Amino acid sequence: MPIINAILDDFFWRALIGGLGVALVAGPLGCFVVWRRMAYFGDTLAHSALLGIALSFVISIPLNLGVVITCIILALALVLFSRTKALATDTLLGILAHSALAIGLVTLSFMPDVRVDLTGLLFGDLLAMSRKDLFWIYGGAGLVLILLATLWRGLLMSTIHEELARVEGVPVERLRLVLVLMFSVVIAVAMKIVGVLLITALLIIPAATARRLAHNPEHMVGLAMIFGFVAVTGGLSLSWYLDTPAGPSVVVTAFMAFLVVYGGAGKVRG
């Protein structure tokens, strides 16, 4: 126990443990983002996180819970608006993403007594990880991984062929809502790691890198987790030795791995 306490008292090890926890859950969920081509949707939910932070201060609830609630409300609003067919889905996503971000910033400006580190919120503050943050990260990651393991077959079927899944009796709409809930949880726990503006990158880049090497969906999920671990470990090391921002350094490391894998695969095939 003294050894564990010593590790948790060191800010670098807390950052590493928290980052690995996010990579653990961002890997499999990022695969669904890539498979379903939901990158813009994930970006919209990430932008709404700042509005969730403002909501948390207004009604005095934990920040992570406020972000989850706001993401779910925004996702449901998108579903309702998309049914009207008045605007294309990508147009709606753009409107909601930037409006939520702007409303969050404006709302926070009306709270002079509330001190918020906007740079940390937008780009992450990995080195300021606390024990409470670790609880949120691993609690949220555990919930999402259990849901993914339980619903894996239905989620995969509805992703590969939605109409066939409906014929087989898979509750496609219900699974889509559960997937949105999982996105909301991951965005809430990843916010501390890479910030509102870079969350989608952490979801997409390791999964896209894994796709190049994977032989089946399960293999891709495992590789996405590994590339996420590489991004977190490499990004933290880069930040430690070069004094660069931790969150962006994680994304840069993920991107470098992406370039290496796609460049190397291209040479092999050539």
UniProtKB/TrEMBL annotation:
Predominant place of localization: membrane
Keyword Ribosomal protein belongs to the record: no
This protein's record includes keyword Ligase: no
Subcellular location: Cell inner membrane; Cell membrane
Domain of life: Bacteria
Bilayer-crossing regions: 12-35, 47-80, 92-114, 135-155, 175-208, 220-240, 246-265
UniProt KW keywords: Cell inner membrane, Cell membrane, Ion transport, Membrane, Transmembrane, Transmembrane helix, Transport, Zinc, Zinc transport
Name of this protein: High-affinity zinc uptake system membrane protein ZnuB
